[in-house]
Amino acid sequence: MKSLGYKRSTTQYIREWCIELFLLASASAAIFVTLAIVFILISESIPFFKEVSILIFLSDTQWTPLFANPRYGILPLLMGTLVTTGVALSLAIPVGTISAIYLSEYAPARLRETVKPILELLAAVPTVVYGYFALLFVTPLLQKFFPSLPGFNMLSAGLVMGVMIIPYISSLSEDAMRAVPMHMREGAYAMGSTKFQTAINVVMPGALSGITAAYILGISRAIGETMVVAIAAGMQPNFTINPAESAATITAFIVQVSLGDLPHDSIGYQSIFAAGSVLLVITFSFNILGFLVKKKFRQRY
Amino acid sequence: MDQLSKEQIKKLIRSHKLKDNIFEILGLILLLCSLLVLLALIIDLSTDGAARISKSFLTNFPSRFPDKAGILSAWVGSTLVMFVTAASAIPIGIAAGVYLEEYAKKNLFTAIIEINITNLAGVPSIIFGLMALGIFVYKFNFGPSILTAGLTLGLLILPIIITATREAIRTIPSAIREAAMAVGATKWQTVKHHVLPYSTGGILTGIVISLSRAIGETAPVITIGALTFIAFLPNAPISTEAPFIHFDWIFSPFTVMPIQMFNWVSRPQQEFHVNAAAAGMILLLMTLSMNAIAIYLRIYFRKKIKW
Questions:
Q1: How far is B245 from chain A (nearest CA, A)?
Q2: Which of A155-159, A233-237, B51-55, B113-117 is modeled with the greatest confidence?
Q3: What is the ipTM of this complex?
């Protein structure tokens, strides 16, 4: 049996090595993208912060970088982002959570298997279509109840954004709830609990880490959402907490500047990178928070 | 301890059961409401836009006159951008997934890659646009071209493809790999002949889902400076004369479907809103049918493979 002495040829070794190198390079692409994002946002913001002090940037309540007399306070944009996100969450969190409880605890398997993919389609609709829906369907509808509502308002943008993130919250929460083992529910049922009591007192605490992570993902989505607010909430920075007014968010401002043709080295142009940095810091903190929550409160069954 | 009378207990049970039923109905209603919104959205778009859908809408360039405006440059642009996106993201995404599942050792470097992928999946799409503006448009001098848009969207969907690939590969039992290795296959041969073919279903599903997301993305493409009014087509990629295949289209300025729709929505005239609805219908049709294909693929491959 000579074939026992078979050895892989050198070319084969080289080929294996080359392939592994290519695969490794592809996997490292993720690191390069992150580095590129951080590098660009920092390097393009530096000229902006040379002109505008960070203190003014974070405390001024006017954002008018494109006016003759520019003011650079990020607060109005931050407020717009906060209000639209708040409106979105006050719709998406209750609806998403209750839907998740219903799907995981009450719904028959057939219904769940049919409804879940359809519900997830809500997250697949292009955001620009949602923007159209918010501006030309939801706003006129709301105006029937509140005639004083302006054509651009954060309320309708926030509500539509809420619908958009329902599937993120319901889907992930449901996964977390279904991961709670059956015997824990059976224990509760044996004590005479109704399904509702079991869901609230046993399943939800058991799935807390997953549910919180789902909320955090929803928040992070809402903060970074662009087209719905750019279309339906208006593009005028407005320092207000009233959702019935129009205002701009950080993302809407970036879109507004990108649509114009500002020269590359103007400060108005650089301001979108400063605004983008703030956006990245916020979403990045939420991502880390979600990661930590998941890690710290993870229940092992 | 106080003893509850039989009556009190019965009352308690009744009230608990009532709460249970109320909650069940509430859950069902809320769920139906979400689905109703989806339905309302589709019906609203269709009633607004159906009248504008015609052959000329698909073959006309955008125009100042709403009834003459069409989406030719938009759908051609979207198709070409998707081509670049697919060509860049699919090979890198699958390769990265294979590396992380089959090759990577459990060490700090692998952990860093994994954290980066999870993190990138949570970065808002407009940030990708800013990054592309800085890197592709100004550092590499690609300009606001089809190439820039395709690469940007490619990077955006990379995490989705990587995650889908990894999940598909993870379902393959290790006995398959051991059997291949036992008959002398190298690692790459194992991957090429066994791991990849058996995970095709999951990977394909992920690719279709990710492309459906990319085709509807607006924000990053606006950020890199795509134009909203394009009344010409990029040079054709294929011609009848040598060298038959051309690549100058990748540096051409372009517009895509969602941007065209955004442009029409943001105009004050009612007539353009009709155009926006029609463009939205076509866009929605594209993404929803891609999602339907993904659902079908998932079911088809789940039925086919039984370990």
A1: 27
A2: A155-159
A3: 0.90
